Amino acid sequence: xxxxxxxxxxxxxxxxxxxxxxxxxxxxxxxxxxxxxxxxxxxxxxxxxxxxxxxxxxxxxxxxxxxxxxxxxxxxxxxxxxxxxxxxxxxxxxxxxxxxxxxxxxxxxxxxxxxxxxxxxxxxxxxxxxxxxxxxxxxxxxxxxxxxxxxxxxxxxxxxxxxxxxxxxxxxxxxxxxxxxxxxxxxxxxxxxxxxxxxxxxxxxxxxxxxxxxxxxxxxxxxxxxxxxxxxxxxxxxxxxxxxxxxxxxxxxxxxxxxxxxxxxxxxxxxxxxxxxxxxxxxxxxxxxxxxxxxxxxxxxxxxxxxxxxxxxxxxxxxxxxxxxxxxxxx
Length: 331
Description:
8-stranded mixed β-sheet
């Protein structure tokens, strides 16, 4: 199977960056945006001035206002916020040609159902081939053409490698994997852990605490991924450890920036004020906590973040709770 026309659902920063990648790979690209001003800006000024300002959009990218504009596409990259994936895929379904695969590029756990994005997509698009793209990739850097690598997970090896070949460029290197659950679990949990690292930074707890949070957070991520049906070796790669290190180490991360504000004494409302892009960890934290409890997995850092975001504890009490946990063997 060869691909010629890629449709991107969602024209946020990451959707726009992936549209750039696909265009640079020589593909025709249609990107669907809910906001009329984004459609107008991309098509007339060649810039997504709302979500990714200052970056010239490739000539082969066209913005469309609704899903009908993706009807001719032979590959779909789905990039809506995780909590809107179900409704977005339901809207796409009437316009999706038979045999067209969908690559999920959103990271999170659906509130209420506690389902991963592949489960949500399978319900919304029965019979459609699903893949997952996840890895350490700040949108602005990818859109500018700076080097990045990611995991492209697809149970069908032939299809997965065809997608990899279609979208790969020298500065964006997808690596195929078969484990879709591991790939998406890593992406969902790391956003919650990034909030924890931001809180630590905001409180001035130092580099030792930061390193400990990443390491112990990775242990939580791995336990949850394996309990959900993924493989430990998958999350030890780009879509787990790689993504975790990136998201927990820079204020470019929307999730870490929320944590920085919380650690600095702001309320959640103040931390989110003025942000045009979604910090997925805020919405995913309660769902990750509930999923971990359902699966019987111990995730104290994710628990603490969810409790802070829900207003159940303050930041200082949550930190004290983590530091007061019983000592145990590391493994």
